[in-house]
């Protein structure tokens, strides 16, 4: 290698720039053998994973229209088989270590009903068009903490490094914004629980149709969370402006304490600080399965695997269910979730030297069709598997985009678990296009003091 080439390589290494832009020839795969967001169009060899044919974009006859509950478009589907403690070894190659650990710990009651695979994931055409442009222009700098040249679509549809699928998850399309209920329950070893009711209002600025990267002003998501119950937490507000270049400007966060009646900057809203109302069973960065900065970890892309993961979870999301029907002793009611065989990207994250996180190692399983993280295995400082996450979603077929409906965090050491992102007894999530000014700290202070 000559001196000029070596100097260029050294500069790229020291600046932390990930070479992510694709050539036109490689980006053109998104129009041929890959789906518009980077999944394999073809099915697998034995047909247990079918080909992608555009996803589920036509509402079924049971759907009552905009704002109505998402009914099950596959009511006739029956389980192909059920995994139990007795036969789990037959399927271990397609299970995460976390899933295998749940069978080992709760096998007398734990099971997985496996259904035919439905490749329902789909997005609007403008997201597909933006994804193609991102493939040619998007790049990460500053150790993966600065996203440049991307907007609206998936930033890295053909990932080359470990933190690219994580960025894809964080910025996957979920509409212009949402007004939703996030009902959360920390379940004890006896099966007892109290509900925490949280209203979340979100503007997905990054996904706004027609914006350029420059118009984002370094913010991808505006997020406000208001606790309405129980009384001891009611009135607590968390406000977050999630930045795209976290070296230029870290996440902006504020919290309103109703006792003090003041909105204060809250730099502790992030990383491994305890999540609101979680009874210590999740960290801040486990909201939405994973969110926030990636700078405390090194990220390694391990490749793609066929795995049994939560999918098409309409039965679990039913508004005919009470929370007590879902929340059972040691785990959620496993008669309700639907599991399917899908290809997922596997990403390993290890805590960097000279920094800290309560999870020393994490394995993320990212659905190729949607870039939703569907499962996570979290290890403690002794490299012992500690907490296991699963995310159950439904396809919002009238939008279209994928919509998480229950996120679980199982603590293998305490035997307790957390369920969050439920809304079975509330209104259905509603798409809402907020003005950016709604998330200005001064406006939040006014609203909170009323």
UniProtKB/TrEMBL annotation:
Question: What residue stretch is flagged as signal peptide?
Answer: 1-20
Q: Please provide an example of a Pfam family that matches this protein in its UniProt record.
A: DUF1329
The record's section on Gene3D superfamilies has: Lipoprotein localisation LolA/LolB/LppX (2.50.20.10)
Q: Which InterPro entries does UniProt cross-reference here? A: DUF1329 (IPR010752)
Q: Which UniProt keywords apply?
A: Signal
Domain of life according to the entry = Bacteria
CDD domains referenced in this protein's UniProt entry, alphabetically: LolA_like
Q: Where is this region: Disordered?
A: 266-286, 428-450
Q: What is this protein called?
A: DUF1329 domain-containing protein
């Amino acid at each position: 290698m000559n001196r000029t080439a070596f100097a260029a390589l050294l500069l790229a290494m020291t600046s932390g720039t990930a070479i992510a832009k694709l050539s036109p020839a490689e980006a053109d795969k998104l129009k041929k053998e890959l789906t518009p967001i980077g999944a394999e169009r073809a099915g697998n060899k034995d047909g247990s994973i079918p080909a992608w044919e555009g996803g589920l974009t036509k509402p079924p006859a049971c759907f009552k229209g905009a704002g109505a509950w998402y009914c099950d478009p596959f009511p006739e589907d029956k389980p192909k088989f059920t995994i139990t403690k007795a036969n789990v070894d037959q399927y271990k190659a397609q299970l995460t270590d976390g899933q295998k650990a749940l069978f080992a710990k709760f096998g007398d009651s734990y099971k997985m009903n496996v259904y035919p695979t439905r490749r329902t994931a789909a997005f609007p055409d403008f997201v597909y068009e933006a994804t193609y442009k991102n493939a040619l222009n998007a790049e990460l700098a500053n150790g993966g903490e600065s996203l440049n040249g991307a907007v609206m679509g998936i930033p890295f549809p053909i990932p080359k490094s470990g933190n690219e699928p994580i960025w894809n998850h964080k910025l996957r399309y979920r509409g212009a914004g949402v007004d939703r209920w996030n009902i959360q329950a920390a379940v004890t070893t006896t099966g007892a629980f109290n509900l925490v009711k949280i209203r979340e209002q979100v503007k997905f600025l990054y996904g706004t149709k027609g914006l350029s990267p420059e118009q984002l002003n370094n913010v991808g998501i505006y997020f406000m969370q208001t606790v309405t119950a129980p009384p001891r937490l009611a009135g607590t507000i968390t406000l977050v402006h999630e930045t795209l270049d976290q070296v230029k400007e870290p996440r902006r966060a504020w919290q309103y304490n109703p006792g003090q009646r003041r909105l204060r900057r809250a730099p502790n809203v992030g990383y491994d600080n305890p999540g609101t109302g979680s009874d210590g069973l999740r960290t801040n960065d486990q909201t939405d399965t994973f969110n926030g900065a990636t700078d405390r970890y090194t990220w390694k892309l391990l490749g793609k695997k066929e795995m049994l993961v939560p999918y098409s979870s309409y039965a679990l999301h039913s508004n005919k269910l009470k929370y007590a029907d879902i929340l059972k002793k040691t785990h959620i009611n496993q008669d309700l979730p639907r599991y399917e065989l899908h290809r997922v990207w596997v990403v390993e994250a290890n805590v960097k030297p000279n920094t800290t996180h309560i999870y020393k190692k994490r394995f993320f399983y990212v659905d190729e069709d949607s870039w939703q993280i569907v499962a996570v295995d979290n290890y403690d400082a002794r490299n012992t598997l500690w907490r296991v996450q699963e995310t159950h979603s439904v396809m919002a077929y009238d939008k279209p985009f994928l919509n998480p409906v229950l996120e679980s965090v199982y603590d293998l050491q305490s035997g307790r678990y957390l369920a969050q992102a439920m809304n079975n007894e509330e209104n259905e999530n509603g798409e809402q296009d907020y003005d950016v000014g709604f998330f200005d700290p001064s406006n939040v202070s006014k609203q909170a003091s009323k």
